[in-house]
C-alpha cells in the first residue's frame, strides 16, 4: 500500500456498485448465509444444540466467495453486539462487524461490503471512523456504512449509556465521521479540529457513503440532507414506491442527486420455477419466474437495491445462489426490458 493512498481520497463511491445508472435494480445478500429458518435446518440446529437464532457458519467463507464471483452487488451484515434470546432471538451474523468486514475485504474482490447497520451511539465515533476507513482502504474502496441508532434497550445500560439520548448521539457521530474523513486534523468536539493530530488512514473513497437504516430518531429533513441512502424494512410495493418517490423528490428539492434507495426481502426460492407466491414474514416462498416479476416491479417502483436474506430457504444456500446468478440476475441487466419499461 502506497503512502499516498493513506492520505488522498477520490470521487468514487461504493454506492456505484449497488445503483445502476439506468435506474435498474441490483441484488445483494444479507449474512449469515445459512438457511436455519427452514424446517429441516431447524431440526439440525436443535440436534446440534445451537440456540435458536445462532446461525451455522460452517460454510460461510465459501458461500461469500460464491456470492462475490456470481454477479451480486453487495454483502450486507447486521450489528448485534449482545445476543438476547428472550427478547429478540436472533444473533445476526455473530461476528463483530468491523472484524468481519476486514475478513471479507481479504476474500472478496467485487461486491460492496455493507452494514445494515452499525449502531453508532454504542461506539465512540473516533473508533468507528478509524475502523471504517481501514476497511475502505483494505477493500479497495468498497465500504457502504449503514448506520442506525439501535432498537435494543438492553445494550445501552451495559455500556453505561442512555437509551433515550441515542438520537442526539447518532447525529453527533455522523458529524464526527464526516469531519474525520477530511485531511484537516482530528475532530475534538463542538465543531473544532485539532490540526496537530490526525486519524489515519483516510478512506479511499474520499467520503464513505452513509446509509441510514430506519429513522435513527431523526427528522425526514435531516435524513435527506445528511444521508447518501436509505435502507427500509420490507413493505408492499405501494408503500415502497411511495417511500422511494419521497426520498428522491426530497433530495432533488435540496439540489442533491437522487441518492440510493434500498430494501430487503426474505427469500425461500422454490425448486419449481413456476411456483406461485406464498407470503412469509418480510418476503415470500415462490419460483424464480414470480420472483423475477417481483424484482421488475421493484425496479419500476424506484428501488435501487434489494438485500436478500436466505435463512428461510428450504434448499441449500449454494443452490439458491447459483439459480439466482444464472436465471434471475441476467433479467435485471436486460437492456431491452429496461428500454421497453422506459417507453
Strand order of the largest sheet: 1-2-3-5-8-9-10-13
Helix content: 25-40%
Characterize the main sheet. Answer: 8 strands, parallel, barrel
Tally of helical segments: 11
Quote the average pLDDT. 92
Give, in order, the helices and strands.
Answer: EHHEHEEHEHHEEEHEHEEEHEHH
Number of separate strands: 13
Low-confidence stretches: 1-9, 335-343
Describe, in plain words, how this protein is organized in 3D.
Helix 3 (97-107) runs parallel beside helix 4 and helix 8 (237-253) runs parallel beside helix 9. The chain is α/β, with parallel strands linked by helices and 343 residues long. Mean pLDDT is 92; it is low at 1-9 and 335-343. The strands form 2 sheets. An 8-stranded parallel barrel has the order 1-2-3-5-8-9-10-13, surrounded by 6 helices. The longest helix has 17 residues, at 237-253. It is built from 11 helices and 13 strands. Helices cover 37% and strands 17% of the residues.
Secondary structure blueprint with pairings:
Blueprint: E1 26-30, H1 39-48, H2 60-69, E2 74-77, H3 97-107, E3 112-115, E4 118-119, H4 125-138, E5 143-148, H5 155-158, H6 166-180, E6 186-189, E7 192-194, E8 210-213, H7 220-226, E9 229-231, H8 237-253, E10 260-269, E11 278-280, E12 283-286, H9 288-301, E13 305-309, H10 317-332, H11 335-342
Parallel strand pairs: 1-2, 1-13, 2-3, 3-5, 4-5, 5-8, 8-9, 9-10, 10-12, 10-13
Antiparallel strand pairs: 6-7, 11-12
Helix pairs in contact: 3-4, 4-6, 8-9, 9-10
Amino acid at each position: 500500500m502506497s503512502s499516498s493512498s493513506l492520505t488522498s481520497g477520490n470521487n468514487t463511491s461504493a454506492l456505484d456498485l449497488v445503483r445502476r445508472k439506468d435506474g435498474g435494480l441490483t441484488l445483494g445478500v444479507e449474512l449469515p448465509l445459512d438457511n436455519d429458518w427452514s424446517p429441516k435446518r431447524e431440526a439440525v440446529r436443535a440436534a446440534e444444540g445451537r440456540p435458536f437464532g445462532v446461525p451455522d457458519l460452517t460454510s460461510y467463507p465459501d458461500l461469500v466467495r460464491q456470492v462475490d464471483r456470481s454477479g451480486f452487488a453487495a454483502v450486507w451484515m447486521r450489528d448485534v453486539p449482545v445476543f438476547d434470546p428472550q427478547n429478540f432471538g436472533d444473533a445476526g451474523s455473530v461476528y463483530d462487524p468491523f472484524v468481519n468486514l476486514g475478513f471479507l475485504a481479504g476474500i472478496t474482490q467485487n461486491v460492496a461490503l455493507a452494514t445494515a447497520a452499525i449502531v453508532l451511539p454504542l461506539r465512540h465515533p473516533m473508533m468507528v471512523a478509524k475502523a471504517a476507513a481501514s476497511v475502505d482502504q483494505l477493500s479497495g474502496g468498497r465500504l457502504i456504512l449503514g448506520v442506525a441508532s439501535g432498537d435494543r434497550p438492553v445494550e445501552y445500560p451495559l455500556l453505561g449509556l442512555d437509551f433515550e439520548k441515542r438520537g442526539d448521539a447518532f447525529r453527533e457521530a455522523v458529524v464526527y465521521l464526516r469531519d474525520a474523513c477530511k485531511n484537516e486534523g482530528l475532530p475534538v468536539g463542538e465543531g473544532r479540529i485539532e490540526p496537530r493530530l490526525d486519524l489515519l488512514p483516510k478512506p479511499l473513497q474520499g467520503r464513505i457513503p452513509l446509509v441510514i437504516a430506519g429513522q435513527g430518531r431523526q427528522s425526514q429533513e435531516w435524513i435527506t440532507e445528511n444521508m447518501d441512502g436509505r435502507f427500509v424494512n420490507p413493505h408492499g410495493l405501494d408503500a415502497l414506491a411511495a417511500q422511494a418517490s419521497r426520498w428522491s423528490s426530497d433530495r432533488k428539492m435540496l439540489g442533491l442527486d437522487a441518492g440510493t434507495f434500498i430494501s430487503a426481502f426474505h427469500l425461500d426460492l422454490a425448486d419449481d420455477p413456476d411456483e406461485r407466491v406464498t407470503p412469509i414474514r418480510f418476503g415470500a416462498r415462490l419460483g424464480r419466474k414470480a420472483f423475477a416479476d417481483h424484482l421488475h416491479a421493484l425496479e419500476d417502483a424506484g428501488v435501487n437495491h434489494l438485500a436478500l436474506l436466505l435463512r428461510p430457504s428450504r434448499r441449500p444456500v449454494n443452490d439458491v445462489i447459483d439459480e439466482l446468478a444464472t436465471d434471475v440476475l441476467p433479467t435485471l441487466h436486460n437492456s431491452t426490458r429496461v428500454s421497453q419499461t422506459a417507453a
